[in-house]
């Protein structure tokens, strides 16, 4: 059956299931969704069970959109919304998308726009025809999010064409009689960095992550040239677990070399991905290196990105369904679960995950409908890789800051812009507010402020306690007056020259570039200053060398020159803030999985840790385990 024949059949089925007085004008696939257009959106709005019943019957993700001819336009629609929605909801903006028939309503109190059981939303649809979608007005404005939204609106026609092409490819007929599932390892096996896997069936090829090893110039790219991956334009989809560069850094390169398919991830991952990829290009230019792609390719990624919320079951190929689950690592991080065939096989990729509740996130999801194979990280998989509790880590960093500030020194914390920065910010804000450390400025240098703004744009991905604190108790720790953004070189030099006690959070987290280097160059010789590591320092990075006790470090001075910086300041490592699970949490995660996987593959750890974790899981739980090397192809079914 061709896709056109399938659409015709679906139209007949839909019309047969609808009441006689409800009509549809068109049906088509757009990405993974089956879109129903109607001139009577009010009747669909009146019957909330209608769509649920159709979706269950057809086993498709359904979206009902009003035919453009029935939509109330412009100012008249806004006036109608204002009459229906209580003024105290704090509506700050409206965005109308004619192609989707959606009106995005930004409001300070989304609950008042939604109404009890969605009553207000249905009232809006009845009155103006548009399908309302409500988002919270971010407490902090994000330039990245605003730019992405504007870009998507400006390119909506091209995006609609892309989605229709993707939709027809997803819902094509299965042609092969063979049934098998294979996994090819293209990066991150027995190493940290350049995460990349290819999941294949006779019908479908899915790439999971496509990262770069930022600390390894020689082997920084996944093995994308191998026969299993080529030709790149025949890959059906790219699925991203989260937005760190070692998982998403080379996605634009795929589009540079001919990929034209979809990129699936959560909404926060899309926004953070664009931020970090643009910064990757910028850092390369500043260091005199050639970036592997240009910003135009990042825009191409955005046009092809399809965002999914946790728990959405989505067709991404004729024999493949994807569901994303919370991984607890960074904002929007996901465990990607694939259901292959009609019950043939289930495999999940943890990406990076945290099996512990943190200041920002709930612990990683452990429950799945079915699972045969789990591909899990082993960053801290060694037998001695135990981290202190989060509370102990918070006490530790508070004590270090107190001791340093009281003798007139400053604290420098190299950190990634996403994840650890926000965790540490919340702890420092509370310590200052409660008088546990002196009330000094906390400077945020690099992309930390922008990444924090993206966190406030997606509060539904934070844990309940933090959401409640921000939106119901009126206490947003990210907006504290103690935080000061360093948005110019002049401001950075003033902090360095003044030598006033302060705390500096600066990127990059492994000290392989970024503004943190300016502070270390200036404060390195000072014994009363403290450098605090709160995240993983990969082998070969400047951060790892300092942890090992190096007192003199050669660093780039630009123009091909190097200079030596002296390290006399106090060096501390505060374990427990990591977004990765430690050995105990990794083992506990396997124990708590429901159902328990039949096979486990360990990756994203050095050779020793991958092997150690695999053998320990086998010994304790009698689960078949393996620590594959890069470039292996494993038949799963």
CATH topology name of the largest domain = Metallo-beta-lactamase, Chain A
Whole-number count of domains: 4
Helix/strand/pairing class, anyone? alpha/beta
CATH architectural arrangement of the largest domain: 4-Layer Sandwich
End-to-end separation in angstroms reads 26 Å
Task: Give average pLDDT, whole number.
Answer: 92
Task: Report the CATH C-level class of the largest domain.
Answer: Alpha Beta
Low-confidence stretches: none
Overall body shape: globular
Helix share, percent:
25-40%
Percentage of β-strand residues: 15-25%
Q: How many DSSP-defined strands?
A: 28
Largest sheet: 7 strands, mixed
Descriptive report:
The chain has 637 residues and is an alpha/beta fold. The protein has 4 domains: 3-69, GMP Synthetase, Chain A, domain 3 (2-Layer Sandwich), CATH 3.30.300; 71-137, GMP Synthetase, Chain A, domain 3, CATH 3.30.300.20; 156-383 and 580-635, 4-Layer Sandwich (Metallo-beta-lactamase, Chain A); 392-573, Rossmann fold, CATH 3.40.50.10890. It has 21 helices and 28 strands. A 7-stranded mixed sheet has the order 12-11-10-9-8-7-28. A 7-stranded mixed sheet has the order 13-14-15-16-17-26-27, with helices on one face.
Strand and helix map with partners:
Elements: H1 3-17, E1 26-30, E2 33-38, H2 41-46, H3 48-58, E3 61-66, H4 74-84, E4 91-97, E5 102-107, H5 110-114, H6 119-128, E6 131-136, H7 143-154, H8 156-170, E7 182-187, E8 196-200, E9 205-208, E10 237-239, H9 245-248, H10 251-256, E11 263-265, H11 267-286, H12 295-304, E12 305-307, E13 314-317, E14 320-326, E15 334-340, E16 345-349, E17 373-377, H13 390-406, E18 411-414, H14 420-433, E19 442-445, H15 448-457, H16 464-471, E20 483-486, H17 489-498, E21 503-506, H18 516-523, E22 530-533, H19 542-547, E23 552-558, E24 561-566, E25 570-573, H20 583-592, E26 599-603, H21 607-621, E27 624-626, E28 633-635
Parallel strand pairs: 2-3, 5-6, 9-10, 10-11, 11-12, 16-17, 17-26, 18-21, 18-22, 19-20, 19-21, 22-25, 26-27
Antiparallel strand pairs: 1-2, 4-5, 7-8, 7-28, 8-9, 13-14, 14-15, 15-16, 23-24
Helix pairs in contact: 4-6, 11-12, 11-15, 20-21
């Amino acid at each position: 059956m061709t896709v056109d024949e399938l659409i015709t059949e679906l139209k007949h089925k839909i019309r047969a299931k609808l009441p006689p007085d409800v009509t549809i004008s068109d049906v088509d696939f757009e990405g993974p969704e089956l879109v129903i257009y109607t001139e009577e959106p009010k009747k669909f709005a009146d019957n909330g069970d209608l769509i649920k019943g159709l979706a269950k019957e057809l086993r498709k993700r359904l979206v009902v959109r009003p035919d453009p001819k029935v939509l109330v336009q412009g100012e008249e629609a806004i006036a109608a919304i204002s009459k229906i929605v209580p003024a105290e909801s704090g509506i700050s903006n409206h965005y109308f998308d004619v192609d989707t028939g959606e009106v995005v309503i930004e409001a300070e109190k989304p609950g008042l726009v939604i109404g009890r059981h969605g009553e207000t939303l249905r009232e809006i649809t009845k009155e103006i025809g548009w399908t309302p979608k409500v988002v919270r007005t971010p407490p902090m404005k994000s330039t990245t999010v605003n730019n992405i939204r504007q870009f998507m609106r400006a390119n909506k026609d091209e995006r609609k064409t892309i989605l229709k092409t993707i939709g027809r490819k997803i819902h094509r007929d299965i042609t092969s009689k063979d049934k098998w599932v294979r996994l090819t390892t293209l990066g991150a096996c027995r190493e940290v960095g350049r995460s990349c896997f290819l999941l294949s069936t006779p019908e479908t090829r899915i790439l999971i992550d496509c990262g770069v090893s930022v600390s390894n110039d020689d082997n920084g790219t996944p093995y994308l040239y191998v026969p299993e991956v080529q030709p790149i334009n025949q890959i059906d989809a790219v699925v991203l677990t989260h937005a760190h560069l070692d998982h998403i850094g080379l996605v634009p390169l795929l589009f540079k070399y001919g990929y034209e398919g979809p990129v699936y991830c959560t909404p926060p991952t899309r926004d953070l991905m664009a931020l970090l990829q643009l910064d990757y290009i910028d850092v390369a230019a500043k260091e005199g290196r050639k970036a592997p792609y240009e910003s135009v390719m990042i825009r191409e990624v955005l046009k092809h990105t399809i965002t999914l919320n946790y728990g959405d079951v989505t067709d991404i190929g004729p024999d493949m369904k994807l569901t994303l689950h919370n991984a607890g690592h960074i904002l929007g991080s996901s465990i990607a679960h694939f259901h292959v065939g009609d019950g043939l096989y289930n495999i999940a990729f943890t990406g990076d995950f945290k099996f512990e509740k943190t200041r920002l996130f709930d612990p990683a999801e452990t429950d799945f409908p079915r699972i045969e194979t789990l591909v899990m990280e082993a960053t801290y998989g060694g037998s001695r890789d135990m981290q202190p509790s989060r509370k102990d880590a918070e006490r530790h960093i508070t004590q270090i800051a107190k001791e340093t500030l009281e003798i007139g020194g400053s604290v420098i914390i190299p950190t990634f812009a996403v994840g650890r920065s926000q965790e540490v910010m919340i702890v420092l804000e509370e310590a200052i507010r409660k008088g546990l450390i002196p009330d000094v400025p906390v400077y945020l240098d690099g992309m930390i402020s922008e990444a924090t703004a993206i966190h406030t744009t997606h509060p539904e991905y934070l844990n309940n306690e933090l959401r409640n604190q921000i939106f119901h108790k009126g206490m947003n720790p990210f907006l504290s007056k103690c935080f000061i953004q360093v948005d110019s070189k002049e401001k950075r030099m003033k902090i360095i020259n003044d030598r006033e006690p302060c705390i500096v959070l600066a990127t990059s987290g492994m000290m392989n570039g970024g503004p943190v280097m300016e502070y270390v160059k200036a404060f390195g010789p000072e014994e009363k200053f403290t450098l605090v590591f709160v995240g993983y320092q990969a082998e070969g990075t400047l951060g790892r060398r300092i942890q090992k006790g190096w007192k003199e470090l050669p660093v780039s001075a630009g123009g091909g020159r190097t200079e030596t910086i002296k390290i006399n300041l106090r060096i501390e490592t505060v374990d427990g803030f990591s977004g990765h699970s430690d050995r105990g949490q990794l083992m506990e995660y396997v124990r708590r999985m429901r159902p328990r996987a039949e096979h486990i593959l360990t990756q994203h750890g050095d050779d020793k840790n991958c092997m150690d974790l695999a053998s320990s899981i086998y010994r304790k739980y009698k689960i078949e385990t393996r620590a594959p090397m890069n470039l292996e192809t494993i038949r799963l079914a």
